[in-house]
Amino acid sequence: MTTAAAIYQQLHAAIISLELQPGMPLQEKVLAEEFGVSRTPVREALLRLAEAGLVEIFPQSGTFVSRIPLSAIPEAVVIRKSLERTTVERAAQVAAAEDIARLDAIIARQRAHASLSDASLFYAEDEAFHEAISAIAGYPGIWTLVKTVKLQIDRARRLTLPVPGRMATVTEEHTAIRDAIAAHDVKSACEAMMRHLGAVIPDVTALRQHHPDYFA
Amino acid sequence: MTTAAAIYQQLHAAIISLELQPGMPLQEKVLAEEFGVSRTPVREALLRLAEAGLVEIFPQSGTFVSRIPLSAIPEAVVIRKSLERTTVERAAQVAAAEDIARLDAIIARQRAHASLSDASLFYAEDEAFHEAISAIAGYPGIWTLVKTVKLQIDRARRLTLPVPGRMATVTEEHTAIRDAIAAHDVKSACEAMMRHLGAVIPDVTALRQHHPDYFA
DNA sequence: GCGTCGAAATTGATATACTAGTATGACAAA
DNA sequence: TTTGTCATACTAGTATATCAATTTCGACGC
Fold this sequence. Notes:
The structure is a homodimer.
Chain A: H1 3-16, H2 28-35, H3 39-52, E1 55-58, E2 62-65, H4 73-94, H5 97-115, H6 119-137, H7 140-149, H8 151-158, H9 166-182, H10 186-198, H11 204-210
Antiparallel strand pairs in A: 1-2
Helix pairs in contact in A: 1-3, 2-3, 4-6, 4-7, 4-9, 4-10, 5-6, 5-9, 6-7, 9-10
The structure holds a DNA duplex.
């Protein structure tokens, strides 16, 4: 992998995890020194991050970690629902036994991580579940698209307090989706997915009070 | 606008219009000389094009105009249908009189361009129509997303022979969508849009015969 | 308090050079 | 003839130094 790609990944992860706070300045020169490389790969990484909406570049002025665009979050949720409705409906139509087995394996790992309260591993399996449904539907590119769209939602969610028992709730919702797919019940698969995605919308107003300068 | 952005736009247009043929090599050095700039802005433009899937960069080897990924086109159509179903349904719910007027204005211009057989202006208004629906629905970002997804579809369509009377057909389909939105008839608005988008799928097998080396 | 000027800072772009993979073709060996 | 190896040329990736263009911001004078 190239140096630029590595820097992109590191900055990407740091911004998503809020390790780099929204609004924080990012200077090419400083980053280049920190990473021990020249400005060139740093620039490439920042340009890609700007396209993803994770940093904002103001020419001849400065580069900053983007503030979370609260106004765009409802639209992002709508887009995600639209796309994942498509994948789950198709998956419910075409899923084979081995596909269900894959989903079961993911849910099982999720349960294990939930019982150990390992949020990071749990989150990874959550993503794997949705990605698997996209793959089962035969539309793997849709998950790629969803990932880019859900970026800002995830950042906002990181700011919400962890709700006790939420991992268990998510696992139950996943199980409901899995059951509907296994039963080839398109309608209830769709409904279960909509319930699941509807529950993930962060409480915008509360966030704004606690972290006023994190949002645009 | 920056030099890099200008170069990006020029290359983007040239690739979409097939002026730059799929598979054609693009050398940073050569492009830099042609545009009369240094390698840096050319690189930035190529990197953005690579993210959009319009060029393929093979490190330490070469950069090429991407071949059209025929296998990805069905998925792109599914994604577009999914997203535009969402916008048209919402638009049918919330459209005001002035919104309908905007659609009418676009359709009127389209009719004019069709009667003069000006394909390029007609195409621009076609895009404006879908963009307007996205805006009316309150989800302008969805059109941005659709634009990126439909890139490869558009390239493939450029290779198909112009069908006589297609402009008239498209205008009729747009009118049907407009009427359903004006009537706040969500169901038939959706159906009209699906008919419209279903008619745009290029004939993949025929293309492959005529331009075998344009596809991946 | 307000407007203006100018220095400092930052990204944008250039030029050059070097590194490290990759493709190519010639050539030798089987 | 086929196969494997090697030398070569070529390309993108990175480094470095420098200048340009623009914005930011504080000092200064009014």
